[in-house]
Amino acid sequence: MTIALDHIGRTVAGELHLADVSLTLEPGTINVLLGHTGAGKTSLLRVMAGLDRPTQGTLRQGGADVTRTPARKRSVALVYQQFINYPSLTVRDNIASPLRLRRARDTEARVRELARLLRIEELLDRLPGALSGGQQQRVAIARALAKGAELVLLDEPLVNLDYKLREDLRDELRALFGSARPGGTPATVVYATTDPAEALALGGTTILMHHGRVLQHAPTLDVYHRPASVTAARVLSDPPMNLVDGVVRDGAIELAGDLRIAIGAGAHLAGLADGPYCFGIRASDCRLHPAPGDVAVQARVELSEISGSETFVYLRGADQPVQLIVQQDGVFHHQLDDELTCYLDPDRLLAFHQGGDQRLVASYHPGHPGAPAAP
Questions:
Q1: Cα distances (angstroms) measured from residue 33 to each of 41, 157, 191, 250, 316
Q2: Are 88 and 128 in contact (CB under 8 A)?
């Protein structure tokens, strides 16, 4: 069932929570709501669930206006980041509770099916208090799926889990969403997160939010490769995207200092008019070992961080006032003030307007010829 939000706004005690949000979510789609803490994700989920009313705009579900319809009368299920289960009921009864409320047939079979999908079959006779955090969240998700709702909302459901469990459960969720309704009819899913990696792992479409507004809504890989603005690029980049002001002049990009990158005739930036731009490149497109066509930047180490199986190196240009972050696969140790050569892949540069709304001007896109965006 199509979910349509038309110019939704919400203000509480004079504070703006949502501003002019218009979205159409198609049946059976996975929609990742991505934004930093305070971006308005939870506020939007609560409006979609019927827990809060918007101060302006209209919400339609299947063409019917449900703006003022309370949550209990909507076909919606909501999973929070906290582990919310009925403490006095067994896992079996927790999962079965929405099925019994609607007097569904084959309740036990559906409970066992969901328990199998979420790998909690052996826990059915236990109470939630005897489970780990990850197991409790699996129970909460199973109960939400058992409801058979047309709209499933998940508010950072994995944020309180450890890294490995988060990764495992995230990989399972995409397949689980297809079983969100009895008979295999897929629900429309909205999954809120602050983690760009979750958006990329879940696929579907991504809705970028910032300060209560939607920055961009498109297939996830399109948003990744063609962020609409500098702000959108920052929201979908972890670690932060490297941004450097520069000028296009005489067929080349001139960055801070004397760093110059020639623009080839077939390059995705070839159509840029002369003038100032903001250039962006992700940390994963910078490296400490050269590849053909790379541009070298002499730099010093300001900070080196190891995160899981990756190393993030924060650099400052030795001859140019350029700050860069390099993402290395693997564990490496770099000392403060070590001198390194950083290599940039010019085929991965994004160009944004400098000043104003800093909107995208040109971007690479695998499978599509790069070309400057319309002015």
A1: 7, 12, 6, 41, 33
A2: no
In 3D space, the residue among 307, 364, 362 whose CA is nearest the CA of residue 325 turns out to be: 307
Instruction: Tell me the residue type at 49.
Output: A
Q: Given a cut of 50, is residue 83 above it in pLDDT? A: yes
- Which two three-digit tokens encode residue 188? 């429309």
**For residue 286, what are its two tokens?**
């910078």
Question: Residue 130 is which amino acid?
Answer: A
Tokens of 36: 């930093």
How is residue 241 written in tokens? Answer: 């995207």
CB 237 within 8 A of CB 285: no
| Both tokens assigned to 252 | 């080349």
Of 47, 72, 41, the residue nearest 60 (C-alpha): 47
Is residue 76 within 8 Å of residue 151, measured between CB atoms? yes
Global confidence as pTM: 0.87
β partners of residue 243: 280
Burial environment of residue 70 by CB neighbours within 10 A (0 to 12, 13 to 18, 19 or more):
exposed
Distances (CA, A) of 120 to 110, 115, 124, 172: 13, 5, 7, 13
Surface-to-core class of residue 182, CB atoms within 10 Å of its CB (0-12 exposed, 13-18 middle, 19+ buried): middle
pLDDT at position 374: 37
